[in-house]
Amino acid sequence: MNDDHRDLSQALERVYKYLLKILKKWKVDLLPNAVVTKAKTEDPAIVTTYAGTPLHILLKNKSVHKDNVLPVVTQIVEVIRRLTEASLCHCDLKADNIVVEFIGQSQRPKVTIIDLGLMRKFGDKVCMKPKKRRSVYIYAPELCDTKPVPVSPESQVYQVGRVMSSVLEYLHASNQTLTNISRECLREEPKSRPRIEKVFRTCKRVLKNNTLSATQTRGGGEGVGGRGGGGEGVYCSN
């Protein structure tokens, strides 16, 4: 085993030992391969099984209803917020590694973040390939170095912003508040990015305002999330 493989093995061992502590705290006994939002409480839990469709397929087919855009984005941010509180960085957060299941007649979305193979504790080192999509780095630029560098909450926030912008872009959804916060997350300088808590509060506020707007517009002729309701709805054009 060369030094690079030994370092990687030791890093993974540290992460999974730390995960076991989190599992005990969350009262879960199984080996994790995904982080999911629970159906009722929407509090994240680590699980071994999950169901649904990868987000990148839903985006490609534009099969996420406009009413579910905000809940999906908010749940993604909530899971990452909890991982951040546990000092864990997913390191490979992208639409391919997010699964969405639509439950019941209301088709309420339930988000699962999968593929924890690159997860690290903050401070552990990683070296990501500098992949780009439409000129934007998939991974935080500071992680795309020629040598391993420590992961940080700021590098995780960058990937959250990348996912948020992908959802808004592929669904042609417009909400200036979400657009602004996703752009802040994608700033090149890590220290200039917002904390994940601010991103989560912003999503929750927009979701709440959109819910109030939807209540006001029912019966008015422009369905839930229509432009006639005011507030901060998410509008989609197909």
UniProtKB/TrEMBL annotation:
GO molecular function annotations of the record: ATP binding; protein kinase activity
Sequence ranges of Gly residues compositional bias: 218-238
Region listing for Disordered, in residue ranges: 214-238
Domain Protein kinase positions: 1-207
Entries under InterPro entries matching the protein: Kinase-like_dom_sf, Prot_kinase_dom, Ser/Thr_kinase_AS
Pfam family, one: Pkinase
Superkingdom classification of source: Eukaryota
Official protein name in the record: Protein kinase domain-containing protein
